[in-house]
Q: What sequence folds into this?
């Protein structure tokens, strides 16, 4: 094309500065000479054309010179707002380095400071003051083929508690993982904050808080807002799957029960955490020996995560032929008030199936000594409660004690990897909710794996999209857990890693998506005909952030 010749090519109707301001279309310095002339970009960019690989090198150089996780988080958020394809190229090519920044533990600090580091809006904010207008608000979203909606009301963000509208960092981060780990196209993802107020006094008194500074909405008014939201999503985005994220215990269980048979939805804190932990346990059994039914599980924490894991373990035990009542007797819980037993009068409804006939025990260490579990699972959101006496007791009772310290971010972990290995004389089978560095104990190096929901929910979402299933079932999460467990290799487990390396997560997501889609087709949940080559069909759904040239060849 001769210099000065202007092809009136429009990319989604955009040229020039408008094109540079669209993060899904902007390629920055990677726009070619032909594109610069054809799209009115000549002079709006530095003269030297960069490859995407050179742009990635520039990004990595900038990230690695920053000394704090929060500064890295801010930098990557700005990149995502500026050049989305480049953001995903960086993340997908450097998953082990980037996931702890864009998700746990980095996203935790990002949410705490969200109102103070706020640059540019991302996601949809549905305020309780806009009841009656939710459908109208959803139509303001710029993309129309939405397949995954991650929504929170900000009441229980990670282990940090009520962060109100600051919790928007969680849906944004989760959907980044859907794209990076499972190839869901960014324009098919919608993060949503149901701003129902907050009871966090620090936020209520913070002039830079971005949400409505009002006490939390409760009761009938809250339910009406959620109902209006679900109805609007189903009407405007009929192929969308809704993922509930970080709702408080009081709402999470009942919302899951209310909508799971009425909408394509799931709760990641309950079902996703249950699935990924069951996968970790299946992997752990190859080190600790035996079947699931040979083990007994004691939980520290009886909220969404704990009950979700227990329910998934019960599903696994029943698959081995164990009757449900006997399966539930394999799972024991200690909450803030002590052992969950039938004689207690302060139990919530979701505790009922796991409240056993047993003498009350107030102390977790004493519960370990009395119940004599083969595995302890920490999901309490409080740090350092797997004390040395607790771990030593587990090591005395078991040849290979299973110790899962799953609370996150890292500052909330029940114990560190180093403590688990040292206090068990190197015999612990360990996993954590947030990453820990390798540990050397008596000449042996352990590289503990992270029991990260990112291993599971992206693949589940991909499987639901690929099969166009109108429901997400518990059977799908069980199938996903088994598929995930099968992806961990003997080489992984030899160094104490119960999950595959994060740099394999896209192939893991494909395996999970295949298992989930198979359930949808086998159970007749979808009207879609099963593709002859289901694996190929799944792969064709996946987004690739490699740059394409917008100017056609003459």
A:
């Amino acid at each position: 094309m001769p210099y000065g010749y202007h092809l009136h090519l429009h990319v989604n109707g955009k040229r020039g500065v408008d094109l540079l301001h669209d993060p899904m279309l902007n390629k920055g310095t990677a726009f070619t000479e032909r594109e610069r002339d054809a799209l009115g970009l000549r002079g709006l960019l530095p003269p030297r054309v960069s490859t995407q690989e050179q742009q990635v090198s520039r990004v990595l150089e900038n990230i690695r010179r920053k000394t704090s996780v929060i500064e890295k988080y801010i930098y990557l958020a700005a990149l995502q707002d500026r050049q989305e394809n480049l953001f995903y190229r960086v993340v997908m090519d450097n998953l082990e380095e980037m996931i702890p920044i864009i998700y746990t533990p980095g996203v935790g600090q990002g949410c705490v400071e969200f109102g103070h580091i706020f640059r540019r809006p991302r996601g949809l904010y549905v305020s309780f003051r806009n009841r009656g207008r939710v459908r109208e608000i959803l139509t303001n979203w710029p993309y129309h083929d939405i397949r995954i909606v991650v929504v929170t009301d900000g009441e229980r963000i990670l282990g940090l508690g009520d962060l109100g509208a600051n919790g928007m960092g969680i849906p944004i981060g989760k959907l980044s993982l859907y794209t990076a780990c499972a190839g869901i196209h960014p324009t098919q993802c919608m993060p949503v904050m149901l701003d129902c107020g907050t009871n966090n006094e620090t936020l209520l008194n913070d002039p830079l808080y971005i949400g409505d500074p009002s006490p939390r909405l409760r009761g009938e008014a809250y339910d009406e807002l959620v109902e209006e939201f679900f109805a609007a999503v189903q009407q405007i985005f009929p192929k969308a799957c809704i993922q509930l994220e970080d709702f408080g215990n009081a709402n999470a269980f009942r919302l899951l029960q209310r909508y799971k048979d009425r909408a394509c939805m799931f709760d990641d804190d309950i079902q996703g955490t249950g699935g990924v932990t069951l996968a970790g346990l299946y992997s752990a059994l190859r080190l600790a020996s035996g079947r699931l039914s040979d083990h007994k599980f004691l939980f520290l924490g009886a909220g969404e995560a704990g009950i979700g894991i227990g329910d998934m373990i019960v599903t696994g035990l029943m698959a081995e032929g164990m009757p449900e009542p006997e399966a539930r007797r394999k799972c024991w819980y200690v909450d803030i008030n002590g052992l969950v037993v039938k004689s207690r009068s302060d139990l919530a409804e979701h505790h009922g199936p796991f409240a056993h006939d047993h003498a009350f025990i107030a102390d977790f260490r004493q519960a370990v000594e009395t119940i004599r579990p083969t595995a302890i699972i920490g999901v309490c959101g409080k740090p350092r409660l797997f004390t040395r006496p607790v771990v030593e007791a587990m090591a005395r009772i078991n040849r290979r004690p299973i110790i899962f310290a799953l609370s996150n971010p890292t500052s909330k972990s029940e114990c560190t990897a180093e403590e688990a290995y040292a206090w068990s004389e190197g015999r612990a089978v360990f996993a954590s909710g947030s990453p820990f560095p390798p540990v050397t104990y008596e000449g042996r190096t352990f590289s503990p794996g992270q029991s990260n929901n990112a291993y599971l929910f992206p693949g589940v979402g991909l499987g639901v999209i690929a099969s166009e299933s109108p429901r997400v079932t518990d059977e799908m999460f069980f199938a996903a857990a088994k598929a995930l467990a099968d992806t961990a290799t003997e080489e992984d487990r030899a160094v104490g890693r119960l999950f595959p390396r994060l740099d394999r997560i896209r192939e893991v997501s494909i395996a999970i998506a295949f298992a989930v889609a198979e359930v949808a087709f086998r159970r007749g949940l979808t009207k879609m005909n099963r593709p002859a080559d289901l694996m190929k069909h799944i792969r064709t759904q996946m987004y690739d952030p490699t740059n394409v040239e917008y100017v056609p060849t003459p």
In short: Confidence is low (pLDDT under 50) at residues 1-8. The chain has four domains: 16-99, 119-263, 271-453, 455-491+499-540.
